[in-house]
Amino acid sequence: MVNFEQIRLETKKAIEGLLEVAKLEAGQVLVVGCSTSEVAGERIGSAGSLEIAEAIMSQIMPPLQEKGIYLAIQCCEHLNRALVVEKEAARKYGWEEVTVIPHQKAGGSLATLAYEKLENAVLVEEVKAHAGLDIGDTFIGMHLKKVAVPVRLEIKSIGHAHLTLARTRPKLIGGERAKYCK
Q: What are 6-39's pLDDT values in tens digits?
């Protein structure tokens, strides 16, 4: 049996913890990949759930909207891990739009829900996000800016799905004589 209240609570802890560590600013991008099947304790891609997607999205969207952070939801491999984003973000960052509409069997439940919920949703092939939340080992790394830095929180899963979090930082260049301000 899926405990939706537990999923909401775990998602809230994860997003709040990531935002605290990553220190994202308005206009930056957070990428989320999610297997609702894994959250339910099933094999990835086998038991997608719009109800689980809703429980997760209900905790992710409010703090991002409050801070003016763009959300990018990664689709599953059947859509080549394209992403659902606001058209405004796609224009700001110069992301190329692709023509497809996600659904549960090609895109996944969270992407399907995001396409419905975002104000002016479009799909793009790739982004370079400033931080990310990977729920169920969906491999969001291809959509993070260099250099990705793991974020360790007390929370290790959402439902039954393994949780991985990351922030990014600029590359350190210049060698042993270089000085870094941070």
A: 999 999 999 999 999 999 999 999 999 999 999 9
Q: 110: how many CB neighbours lie within 10 A of its CB?
A: 33
Query: CATH assignment of 4-170, given 3.40.50.10360, 1.10.10.10, 1.10.3720.10, 3.40.50.300?
Result: 3.40.50.10360
